[in-house]
Design goal:
The chain is α/β, with parallel strands linked by helices. It has helices at residues 9-21, 38-50, 62-68, 85-99, 111-133, 143-159, 172-183, 190-201, 221-232, 252-255, 268-279, 286-290, 295-312, 316-323, 326-343, 352-368, 373-384, and strands at residues 28-31, 75-79, 103-104, 107-108, 209-214, 238-244, 259-262. It binds zinc ion. Zinc ion binds at residues 51-53, 59, 61, 63-64.
Amino acid sequence: MFDHIVGYAEIKRHLKEDIKQGTIQTPLVFSGSPLSARMTMALELARLLHCDEHGAAACSCRRCVQHQLLRNQELYIIGERSTLEDIHYFLKALANAQGTSAQAHGETISTENHNKRRNTLKQMVMLRLAIFLKRFDTIILSKKRKSQVETVYQQLFECLHTPLSDEFPISLESIHRGVNSIAAYQTPDVESIRLVQEQCYYRGSNKHKLVLIENLNTLSMTVMHTLLKFVEEPPESLHIIATAQERPRHAQNLASRFHWLYLSTRSDEEQKMVSTSYFGKEASSLQALLVDADTSTFVEQLCDSFFVELDNQNGEFWRLMHTMDLKKSEEISLAILKKLPSKATGKYAPKLPALIRVCKESLQNIHERNVSSRSAIEEVYQHVK
Ligand SMILES: [Zn+2]
């Protein structure tokens, strides 16, 4: 139970005890910074609440096997996934491992080890894809959303059914593009919350249903309002587990219904353990690994994506700034602001001074007031459109 998660000994000990005694208190929320394993904790708790056996790490009961790629029908995930970089990171690593046969980095590795590495990476991609796609599950998707994401969703979903040794039905590049193209639709609307509720009131199985809300603090006010009733009077046999970066200040009512577990910062030693086991290299900051270490290339890419987004209103740029640690995002936002003048051409050129001012304010707001990436992007659009 929770053994694969590094750190948080105290919290894990309490959770284990509560699970064994059947006294676990929900709704509960795992709160912590990005990459603090909030979602991993939440998913492990979900597995333990559903397990037919005693929740051993390698349990092979039907429900634990289903849970590996989140095929569990009684589990619903809603909310905005804050780090999509991890999917992209492993897609890139998998692409690199794809071409180089038994020769990697100048050293010869056996074909067997090479295949093993590829399978591990593929598994990493599939798990992240499963977590991402779960919120597009067609039975909890409003009609409008369904029509917007269905084709891409089906394509990506098929990837979760390919055996480890086979190639994905679409290219890694298409997976990358597909994920980006539907990412903007992941924040739930009121209709999808109602659909989740409907499913939870329907008693189709004798097992607990489970709703996992990712990033509670980035939900819109109307969605939080709809959720409040549900959280106040949940149907019998429902567990609600959430993750959050911090307590949503604008929705104290909802926040106070949850039992809050704070995942504090890991020690340097623990951080290194995570990065080595997870990414195969040592680093004190996981974010630094995900975000390309070469800041100038990264800034270049961000600047370009910023202007693309001004045209198509995809929220990826702000989402990224939102998930970065403060120091890194300050460094990057300064570099971006310096670069903007050379990039703002055509219709954006006359708006440059306003653009820079609003960007500065938004970046500050994101961190100081913990404004969601969606609100930040809306603020900028209002000023430059
Ligand atoms: Zn089990």
